[in-house]
Amino acid sequence: MDHQRIPADRPVRIVVIGAGNRAHKYLEYARRHPERLQPVAIVETNDLRRNELADRFGVAESGRYNDYNDFFSRPVAADAVLIATPENIHFDPCMKAVEAGYHILLEKPIAQSYDECRAIARQARKRGVLVGICHVLRYHPYFVKIKQIIDSGELGEIISINHVSAVGIDRATHGYVRGLWRRAEATNPMLLAKCCHDVDFLLWITGSPCRKISSFGSLRWFRTANAPQGSTERCIDCPVESNCPYSAVDLYCNRRDWISNFDVPHGKSLDEVLMEELKQGPYGRCVYRCDNNVVDHQLLTMELENETILSLSMDVFTQDDCRRTHIKMTHGEIFGDEKSLHVRRFRSGSEQICDFEKLAKSPFHAGADLRLIEDFVDALTRPGHPFRTAVEESIESHRICFEAERSRLSGKTILLQS
Ligand SMILES: NC(=O)c1ccc[n+]([C@@H]2O[C@H](COP(=O)([O-])OP(=O)(O)OC[C@H]3O[C@@H](n4cnc5c(N)ncnc54)[C@H](O)[C@@H]3O)[C@@H](O)[C@H]2O)c1
User: Fold this and answer.
1) Ligand 1 geometric centre to CA of 20 (Å)
2) Measured from the CA of 90, which atom of ligand 1 is nearest?
3) Residue 109: is the preceding peptide bond cis (ω within 30°)?
4) Atom 25 (ligand 1): residue with closest C-alpha?
């Protein structure tokens, strides 16, 4: 779809809704390239976060909003909106931004139902605005390399793929048991929240529509019935804490992991904030006694129109925090874990190994976050430059995740109509 361009001789003026972790990543591009991207308003419910980000970019008082409805009723001049709020706050601000004629960069998942996703795409088409979805894997050099090898045709056609999204135990207990993504109705089913990127990647490299899916999984472990004898509501005073692999004391205080998102108000230290959290906050709770309801393991199988079959396993019970992919093709195979990529050819028996070890550790998803927002700015300013995943294309991965949930809950294989 074509949309109205913005003159390339000035920065794209962007409004940020939700000044959390993701917004900071994308705004690093504005810090490095102020001539191309300029934040002109920050909408954020948390005073500390709003003012910190607004101060950093010199956003005037008139461009600081607590509520996005205030922004839409009293807007400052802008070209685009970045929506990086929690996923239950995507649809409403996105529809309002589309209505108001802004181009939008929307964090995944698009919305909380397939109908809402379609409504956004429909309105965007009608209003002639671009709605780009943040599928960062399409900008990540390791995943781009896989796509290039497949597209070159040198290994023939894809027959099947086994893909593993290793969420990892620490990320899972932090985000999906104690944290923001623990309840499906408040955010989304876990497959959509965590793995819509993986499904998008699989559709991207195979290039064939999905026709059949089935899915299995449940909340098997992180529930009260599995709490060890003698354990208590909070890790901080739990007598069996020292033997628990999911201890919040160990994760946040001993290992200092997953602590960057805790706000530290002026006059307080991070340690004081962590101690308060352990005593009173959601992140200090026993993993067996939270109000979580999303799955802790799930398998999705897909059959494509061209008879390729795919499996995606979302694994929580592992220390790995990576994606592993094994692609079986007619003339060879590709296997990788983000650190290295092995390409084997059947006829010669040769194996080529690409090393991504250093890159895998580099910030901003190996630079993918910055390339993604640059692509968005290019799409708005350069005629004929398409954004890699506009909402129309991203919708299919979302449909599959919604249908996977239906299959998981009903125990049925779902046939997808085109
Ligand atoms: N593309 C990726 O790789 C990737 C990675 C992680 C998260 N995400 C997605 O990005 C989105 C944001 O995640 P995050 O990790 O940045 O979360 P976050 O909690 O760090 O940031 C969200 C911010 O939105 C603010 N907020 C909440 N309600 C608001 C409202 N009504 N108006 C304005 N601001 C509001 C919160 O105070 C918070 O500062 C989620 O949809 C998440 O799934 C994407």
Assistant:
1) 5
2) 41
3) yes
4) 18
Measured between alpha carbons, how far is 83 from 114 in angstroms, rounded to an integer?
18
Residues present in the chain in total: 418
**CA–CA separation, 343 vs 332, rounded Å?**
7
Q: Is 85 helix (H, G, I), strand (E, B) or coil?
A: coil
At 376, the amino acid letter reads F
Q: Binning pLDDT at 50, 70 and 90, where does residue 107 land?
A: very high
**CA of 265 relative to ligand 1 center, distance in Å:** 19
For 413, phi and psi rounded to 5 degrees? -80, 135
C-alpha to C-alpha distance for 364 and 400, rounded to whole angstroms = 27
Residue 52 to residue 134: CA distance in whole angstroms: 24
- Tokens found for residue 129: 């605005």
Could you give the CA distance from residue 371 to residue 378 in angstroms, rounded to a whole number? 10
What are the residues facing 38 on neighbouring strands? 13
Tokens of 409: 């809950």
Contact present, 107 and 135 (Cβ < 8 Å): no
Tokens coding 385: 């430059």
Question: Which residues approach ligand 1 with their CB closer than 6 A?
Answer: 17-22, 43-46, 49, 68, 84-87, 89, 107-108, 134, 136, 180, 193, 261
pLDDT tens by residue, 343-401: 999 999 999 999 999 998 899 999 999 999 999 999 999 999 999 999 999 999 999 99
C-beta separation of 303 from 309 below 8 A: yes
Q: Which atom of ligand 1 is nearest to the CA of 67?
A: 32
User: Could you read off the pLDDT of 187-239 as tens digits, one per residue?
Assistant: 899 999 999 999 999 999 999 999 999 999 999 999 999 999 999 999 999 99
The 3-state DSSP class for residue 240 equals coil
The number of angstroms, rounded, from the C-alpha of 12 to the middle of its chain's C-alpha atoms is 24
301 alpha carbon – ligand 1 mean position (Å): 29
Cα–Cα–Cα angle for 165, 296, 189, rounded to 5 degrees: 80
Which tokens in the block code for residue 137?
Answer: 């894997």
- CA distances (Å), 149 to each of 137, 327, 345, 359, in order? 16, 11, 12, 19
Domains delineated in the chain: 12-133 (3.40.50.720), 138-222+292-357+394-415 (3.30.360.10), 224-289 (no CATH)
- List the one residue out of 31, 33, 41, 35 whose CA is nearest residue 10: 35
CA of 19 to the centre of ligand 1 (A): 7
Q: What is the pTM of this model?
A: 0.95
